[in-house]
Amino acid sequence: MLTSQRKKAILKTLGRDGQVLAKELSETFGVSEDTVRRDLRELAGEGLLQRVHGGALPASTAVAPFAERRALESTAKRAIAAAAAAMIETGQVVIIDGGTTSAELIRQIPHDLSATVVTHSPSVAVGLVDHPLIEVIVIGGRLFKHSIVTVGAAAIEAMSHIQADIYFMGVTGVHPSAGLSTGNFEEAFVKRALAARAAETVVLASSDKINAASQYVIGGITLAQTIIVERETELALTKPLEDAGITIVRA
């Protein structure tokens, strides 16, 4: 079998099963595991999968720069944001992550809602200027321009003084075994630190993030108590998450 044929077969299996194992692939193709690992490395280099120990998972496609992702507004994203906004109650302290779904979330917050929003996203903070009853606390640090959020030691130190009711987390990957992941090392630390400061973590997950993985792990799947998904998300994708004890909200 030619290399190109093996790669197509690998991607087909990955799309069908949600994961591939190097040992099983080597047996299927009758080649060495080293050969399979080389195929996986090359496919990962093209952004077509995410390598993990022993094999590979689907790669998240939610990795474009913020401006490009913001331009790709969708009905599904607005529905997820509306479901998240409906969870916020009067008087709560709410942490809102950066990202395009979070940008939509703040548009869905009623103007008469009285609450405190903590964010490390300058875009989220500015977007709440016209909400007269929302107090905004901005966490400072080094600006990570790809996602327009602050990261680093200063940001994590500031978070340690917060006790929030709910944290709306943005991710690029949600996978039952690989957990919650993102495409930047420092962002992963910041998101984990924010989750530790909230009574409940709610992940906002459009369909391109479900059953996918990125390079940097935020935490295990049970770091989230609730995941909001698109209404049409396949039951086969959400059942392993529910089996892990996570509440799935379909928006």
Automatic annotation (TrEMBL):
Pfam families: DeoRC, HTH_DeoR. This is HTH deoR-type domain-containing protein. GO terms for molecular function: DNA binding; DNA-binding transcription factor activity. Gene3D superfamilies: 3.40.50.1360, Winged helix-like DNA-binding domain superfamily/Winged helix DNA-binding domain. It comes from the Bacteria. SUPFAM superfamilies: NagB/RpiA/CoA transferase-like, Winged helix' DNA-binding domain. Residues 3-58 form the HTH deoR-type domain. Keywords: DNA-binding, Repressor, Transcription, Transcription regulation. The keyword DNA damage does not apply. InterPro entries: Carb_Metab_HTH_regulators, DeoR-like_C, DeoR_HTH, NagB/RpiA_transferase-like, Tscrpt_reg_HTH_DeoR_CS, WH-like_DNA-bd_sf, WH_DNA-bd_sf.
